[in-house]
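Study both lines:
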Amino acid sequence: MIDAPSVLHRRVSTRDPDEALQYEQAYTRFRVQPFDAAGFRFSLAVAAVGALSVGHLLHTARVDAQAEPPAQLTVVEADSPMRLVDRGGDRASRLMLTPHWSPHTAAWAGGRVRVTTVHLAEVGRVAAEVADLGRAGVEFGVTTPRSPGHARYWNALISHLDRELLAEDDLMAQPILYGEALRQLVLGALAVFPNSTLDRQHTAGPNSAEPGTVRRAVDYIDAHAGEQTTLTEIADAARIGPRALQLAFRKHRNQPPLAYLRRVRLERAHRDLQAGDPTRGDTVVAIAARWGFAHPGRFAGEYRHFYGRPPSETLRS
């Protein structure tokens, strides 16, 4: 189970270029060409929790740098195109995955950027759950998104994380919400930026799971639905690999195991709504968050689909 650490907020502002560079070096080590310090402004606001962070950075001077690979998966969204050169070529984009696999050079006219980071160990863990990568692990090779639509998806994903989750410390204190946010962030990166999970083909082999394996997984999910539970943990309890478990679940339950987990959590939220009392301070938002539903509108829509009425009506009845 993944514990939910506290959200840490940090804000800095300076007109000193040397001080600004010290803060920027926290993302990756780099050597920068001298730039005009006249009228220079720098600010940084970061919200970090556990293995992920989202930062907003203002740097008013042009940057030309030679950078080392960052220690984390780092994605940068800028209000003006950035140029990046690494072993994979020369690219320009407003959305870039900073190469954590090779040194690179970067050029940017300055302005505002949003920087999202996640620990590489978490990227590897989630990638192993969705693809049978063996010892090689997940490999990225291209720094730009697969399409403009993928770029828009990333923007929407991080905006939700930034504005609706990291801005509410009590939400991210919920272990389920933190774990789901971390997983969705990694899945987003795997979907948006070309990597070795995208073309991985999976076929059921001679050791495909029997129904008993599925039952063990179901028992584990039912017992741990109130905790932050990963696919790897469920597979361990079922005594099978994550990908084989997904294949078995689709065969015998016509859905992936994490979809079943979400349905169980929706049922638990339904029970809490039935037992809740608004006069005691019970709210739909709080009950939904308790079971890992961070977006009230989506929760209400999903709830109505399964139960035929809005969750607020259940709570009041």
Remarks:
- The beta strands are 8-14, 30-32, 42-49, 52-59, 63-67, 72-86, 89-98, 104-108, 111-119.
